[in-house]
Design goal:
Length: about 575
């Protein structure tokens, strides 16, 4: 602009005054930058069209006034003092400034101010030329947001979370009393949703989960998608760790609510690990690492629960490597053992069958709890060959039972949701039965409530086919999800197994009694029979008997035992206990 003015001045000196004036006016009115010219006393003399367009003020509204009409109030006195100091010294100033439009909207602009002087070096005018930066700022903000936000869920991404956490911990290094809770969430069996329903449904589910988490958080808290189906949250300014436990329970309840997609209800749950700052670490990396270990412990302990970090978890890494290696050997060598727990007809005092429960005694690890190796097997896909080994073993043990004279006692086999959703699930079972020359009528298939709640069209098809083959069908852990009995009526179900969490307190808690009683009555109306699992006392047995429960399973009658002890138990029951056995 200064060069333009100098050229115009040169043209004027050369006598082209009329042409130069016309050119100057055309440039002044058509240039895209806003221009404001004042006199030496900072009174506005004239402005151009771009000035009107950007600020919203007409020429007649500002001429004679000072530039203060545009001030936003964002910059303090020192800002303007420094600006004028530079103008006086150097004759020009440029920089970013926030001004205010006539509408009251505050906007950013890039402003250049030039001091105009006469031949005697006296200030005659000030010329301000500015560019509206609003659109550029919006683009920059969008780019920054894109760099810091997960593109699918619109929450923080991993980089943004780490940045915010580092800033938070850096600030809190000056406040020793501050506590924060870090939550590491992993959705249970999310891979199954992706594999069976497709990635589009999986993505929709992730977005829904992210929105639910956002609704639980306060303004100072942080949520991020850490990767895949993992989320991390920070609950700031904690007064006591019990607040973290309460919040984790809220998360679990929120996540396990069904998600409705295309008129279909999808059920997921989450496992959560928690670390506390500064007790479990004073860096973001350390806190996340420990929350991750606690999360995996929660998953191993049965999923849909939370765990705080504790020091012993640091020893788990080497065990995990060994667990994987030993588990694969056990599959190859069929090193699993089946234990059996009887099911008893309450009214007739008659044993009517057994549930087969897998046990594993590793050469290097010793006895490994199913609560440890089953979740790991499901995460890695090893549960499928393990399930096939279990079915094979059940066929072998059935043969032993038959030789001992017990020909009509069916064995219940638990089928993992992962295995059930496999396309070759039915074929693999049929092959095992044919190989062992046994019939499906000798077995019951137990699937969890959550298994039948997802992908119902495929589920119904498989359950119908199982019934056609001769299997009885049980819904295990009933009452722990969000299904209803009216929903289950569409499935060809023979038995409902009430989860032991309801049975434990059935004697003392009226709400548990009401739930169990309602399940029993409704199931009977829908021509289903009811099995109560986890029965441990005569009081529980009597209560269930009064409610009309059909079958009982639990330590009151017998703990799970290997096949040899089972046969001894049956003989004791038959001859000394004077109980009956289905025949």
């Amino acid at each position: 602009m200064r060069e333009l003015l100098n050229n115009l001045k040169l043209n004027m000196n050369n006598g082209n005054l009329l042409h130069t004036t016309s050119l100057l006016l055309r440039v002044f009115e058509n240039i895209q930058e806003g221009i404001m010219v004042t006199d030496s006393q900072m009174r506005i003399l004239f402005v151009n069209n771009a000035f009107e367009s950007v600020t919203g003020y007409k020429k007649e509204e500002v001429v004679g006034k000072g530039p203060q009409v545009l001030q936003s109030g964002i910059h303090n006195h020192d800002f303007y003092k420094e600006m004028w100091a530079i103008l006086s010294k150097e004759g020009n100033w440029q920089g970013e400034i926030w001004n205010k439009r006539k509408s009251g909207e505050i906007y950013p602009e890039w402003l250049s101010i030039m001091v105009m002087k006469d031949e005697n070096d006296n200030v005659t005018n000030y010329c301000g030329i500015f560019t509206d930066l609003s659109e550029r700022k919006r683009v920059e903000e969008q780019l920054e947001k894109r760099a810091l936000t997960d593109s699918l869920t619109d929450v923080n991404n991993r980089f943004s979370y780490l940045e915010k956490m580092n800033l938070l911990l850096n600030e809190d290094s000056r406040h020793e009393e501050e506590q924060h809770a870090i939550f590491f969430l992993d959705l249970d069996r999310f891979k199954q949703v992706n594999d069976t329903l497709g990635h589009e449904i999986g993505d929709y589910l992730l977005v829904d989960v992210a929105n639910r988490l956002k609704r639980l958080l306060g303004a100072k808290d942080i949520v991020a998608r850490y990767g895949g189906d993992e989320f991390v949250l920070t609950l700031t300014e904690l007064r006591h760790p019990r607040e973290a436990a309460k919040f984790a329970e809220q998360i679990i309840k929120e996540i396990e609510k069904p998600v409705k997609i295309n008129n279909q209800e999808i059920f997921v749950s989450t496992s959560i690990g928690i670390s506390i700052y500064p007790h479990d670490g004073d860096t973001t990396e350390e806190l996340l690492n420990r929350a991750d270990k606690a999360m995996y412990y929660a998953k191993q302990s049965g999923r849909n629960r939370f765990s705080f970090y504790f020091d012993e978890l640091n020893t788990d890494a080497n065990r995990l490597i060994l667990l994987d290696s030993e588990l694969r050997k056990a599959i190859d060598n069929h090193d699993f053992e089946l234990y059996f727990q009887p099911k008893v007809n309450v009214r007739e005092n008659k044993i009517i069958g057994f549930e087969a429960l897998v046990r594993w005694n590793s050469e290097k690890l010793g006895f490994v709890s199913p609560a440890e190796f089953i979740p790991y097997a499901e995460e890695t896909g090893l549960i499928i060959p393990i399930s096939e080994v279990i079915i094979e073993k059940a066929c072998e043990e059935l043969s032993i039972l038959r030789k001992a004279g017990y020909s009509k006692l069916p064995i219940s086999i638990n089928i993992s949701s992962i295995h059930f959703q496999q396309t070759n699930f039915l074929e693999s079972i049929q092959i095992i039965l044919e190989r062992n020359n046994t019939s499906a009528h000798n077995f019951e298939i137990e699937v969890t409530e959550r298994t039948v709640m997802n992908n119902d069209a495929d589920t119904i098809s498989k359950l119908v086919r199982l019934k056609q083959l001769g299997f009885k069908i049980s819904i295990d852990d009933f009452g722990t999800g969000y299904s209803s009995l009216s929903y289950l009526v569409r499935f060809p179900v023979d038995y409902l197994k009430i989860d032991k969490s309801f049975i434990q307190h059935i004697v003392n808690l009226a709400d548990k009694q009401a739930i169990v009683d309602a399940i029993i009555q409704m199931a009977h109306r829908l021509n289903m029979q009811v099995i109560a699992e986890g029965v441990e006392s005569i009081q529980q047995l009597n209560q269930l008997s009064r409610m009309g429960c059909d079958f009982i399973q639990g330590y009151y009658y017998s703990k799970p035992v290997p096949i040899e002890e089972l046969i001894e138990f049956l003989q004791f029951w038959e001859y000394e206990h004077q109980g009956e056995i289905e025949s």
